[in-house]
Amino acid sequence: MSLPYPPGRVSTPAPAESNGLGYAYYVTIILLLAYTLSFVDRQILGLLVQPIKKDLQLSDWVFSIVHGFAFAIFYTFVGIFLGRLADRWNRRNLIVIGMAIWVVATAAGGYVTGFVSLFVARMFVGVGEAALSPAAYSMLADYFPPERRARAMSIYTSGVYIGSATAFIVGGLVIQATSQAGEVVFPLLGSFKPWQAAFIFVALPGIPLVALMYTVREPVRRGLQAAGASARAAAAAGPAPDLSHVFRNKRAFLPLLLAPGITAMITFGVTAWLPATFIRQWGWTPGEIGPAYGVIILTFGIGGMLLSGFLADYLTARGKQVGSIVISLVATGVLIASGLVLAFAPSPTVALVAVAVTTFFLGMPVALAPPILQAVTPNQLRGQVTSIYLLLINLIGLGLGPFLVAFFTDFVFHDEKLVGLSLGLVSALAALLSVLCLASAIGPYRRLVAAMEGRA
């Protein structure tokens, strides 16, 4: 007998078809909650720039290292290993272990005393969160047929915006409320400054969510032999695909992997520095910009993601295999203009309108990148390709996005009040580069989809 999983490591998989779409969407919601929590824990730092800089005596560019590189480097390189593990091991259990690590590491942010301890805490947040998306996207691809994947994955990916919104709304209100008292006391945990208490608050929901994740069952991997298949049948299927598939089709994969990473510079740049822009340039408080930006994310961001998922599924069902790329291309083109408006906004009202437009259209390429890649990736490679996709998102997007904004502010403009100008220009440049990548991918992607459908 040839088993698709190592013996003793995986519970009986749940056939997606027998459970129906109802259970598949239940799994999607649970994974969405986990992804939402991961982005709350990841993005809360954006609201805490000013108090952390003051108490730990950090400059903008040093803070950007903690916000970006500390998380991104470990998230991405550990993610490569975990992506490979997700292709071979129980994906639900992998997610549970990762969640436990990042929840504890987030809470540890309440105890940091300097740059090094904050760096280490954020590093372990990255290590834990690296387990989630490679396993989650692989599971969703097994729970849903191709014509329904974009919709399901856009729901899951909306956790980016739901989590960011929650971080800004709840975080802003918590900071404003607790700053009145000066200290926050948690029984058994100790006394904390308001910014330290924010880490504890956002970590607490992770405890019941880890337990809820145990209600998710491992699905059968589409395209692989069932556990009882004979060795002869497995051998007849030929050698398992490996990463040479990606290299052979690099004209499609390279731009499709680079584009999300470059676009992510906008996502992480805005979430890291938009609060500071309004606080420094227009005198807003965290309690004002946090909820305002959070509402924009919840409405415009999620709206753009869900609309793009429905449009992509509509086009795919009608044979338009490059429809998802075209949607992403058009939406990213709009981001060039909205970035320039943000850079030169004369008032906070104009800036918020630019942010709303950016958030709506940014949600489209963010939501569609995973199903675009899944459509041309064999089942046995989905976790690994997802880990490469996440590696580039975090190395380029999270590693460079916040850092370049801080670099322009500190070393080009030499004025921290011009962080909005830096943010808008970096966003417009990133959008332009992403448009070029997507445009170059259309032809190779169309040919690769046709070739894979011919072999199916």
Notes on the protein architecture:
GO terms for molecular function: transmembrane transporter activity. Its main location: membrane. Residues 27-442 form the Major facilitator superfamily (MFS) profile domain. The chain crosses the membrane at residues 21-41, 61-82, 94-113, 153-175, 195-216, 252-273, 293-315, 322-345, 351-376, 388-409, 421-445. One of its GO terms (cellular component) is membrane. By secondary structure, the protein is mainly α. The protein has a single domain (17-220, 244-455), classed as MFS general substrate transporter like domains (Growth Hormone, Chain: A, Up-down Bundle). The chain contains 18 helices and two strands. The protein has a two-stranded antiparallel ribbon. Helix 14 (286-317) runs antiparallel to helix 15. It is globular and about 65 Å long.
